[in-house]
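Apologies for my clumsy wording, but could you write out the amino acids of a protein and the tokens describing how it folds?
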Amino acid sequence: MSTGSSKRSNSRGRILVVDDDREMCRFLAEILGEEGYAVDAVQDGAAALDLFTQNHFDLVISDLKMPRMAGTELLRRLKEIDPECAVLLLTAFGTIESAVDAMRAGAFHYITKPFHTDEMLIEVERAMERRTLREELKRLRTEVQARDRLHNIIGQSEAMQKVFETVAQVSDLFANVLITGESGTGKELIARAIHFNSSRATGPFVAVNCAAIPEALLESELFGYVRGAFTDAKKDRRGLFQEASGGILFLDEISEVPINLQAKLLRVLEDKEIRPLGANQSEKVDTRVLSASNRILDDMVRQGSFRQDLYYRLNVIRIELPPLRERSEDIPLLVDHFIRKFADGARRQVTGIQEEALTALKNYSWPGNIRELEHIIERAVLLGRGPMVGIEDLPPQLAACGENAAVLGTALAKQLTLRDLEREYIGKVLQTTQGNKTEAARILGVDRTTLYRKLEDYKLKD
């Protein structure tokens, strides 16, 4: 038998009832249907399996004792088809022990006969909620994995292709990797790509910004502590090396680790052991370390602010990320990605970018790199009014870059001298900044004294 309630399009979920008692099937189909569930009911395990393989069910409610196929066997067969399948078992009082064994085999719960209607509805709702949570967790994991896949790091430039090749080569090695590059170039994204593409992908990825943790706390954060190690140590606490065991620990801004802590970090990297604060014994950790810095560590070594031996230990393999200004051919791809990302999130009908605005983005120097580009596109999508991002949607310093490109074209057509071109360019920048000389000097890349001298020379003071 099969109830008509399974046809509901607005159901709270779909349930399969399996019981050799026809009246029990009718009763369950009725009470569950009244609650908004779509219900199908069959009277033996074989029929249940046929129906289950052809349709999606959020929950199966099955009697434990049935003549042709016991509920435990049906449970086992259902789990082979769908390991996430939720199964609620019905059992007489004398077979509770069997029901408990079935729960160990993967059943969601059991209910003893006779049962109260409210008890059944509560357990069904619990099973549905758990199914929903599991599906949401699975979806989030899939999103995170998709975000971290190497092929989702955007870049077709030759410089980025070399980075991709290196990542693919080093992902499955245990060697330490140092990722360098200016702020905003995507160092953590590369670290996550290495983790995802390695044999440690199922282990934890723990990221810590060494610059964001006060010097007095960084040691306890990295290595943990035992109860009584200091005044507020009320109980033992695991450090990040322990939390990342079996996976990867990403030490961002490694240049900010205090010199007195660098020796202890070196010892951990060499011995693969950590000793929490206040502990008498060390313990082994299986943690691969990736690190990153936007400062030039070679200079810090020469200045004595970074240990040379630690630098060599971290810098077994080095990945240098190019700044965005050196990979302008990647800007259209990045812009397209960010427009789609923020338009979808804000439910805005923004489909692309005008050529003049894209030219301005290509001509800009990008001191903040990809992070700055992302923020500018987000602003343009959220505040812009048209279906395309235009030059008017960009901040003044970006709009100036678009105008400056036009200025260069005009200068070439007029065959202006360098002096004339410089005068006209400075005037355009001042127009863009509405006379703000500090901002104009920043855009021009000169100090204010130089700007004032040129204004005097070109008679642009007013």
Remarks:
- DSSP finds 19 helices and 14 strands in the chain.
- The CA atoms of residues 40 and 270 lie 62 Å apart.
- The longest helix spans residues 117-148.
- Confidence is low (pLDDT under 50) at residues 3-10.
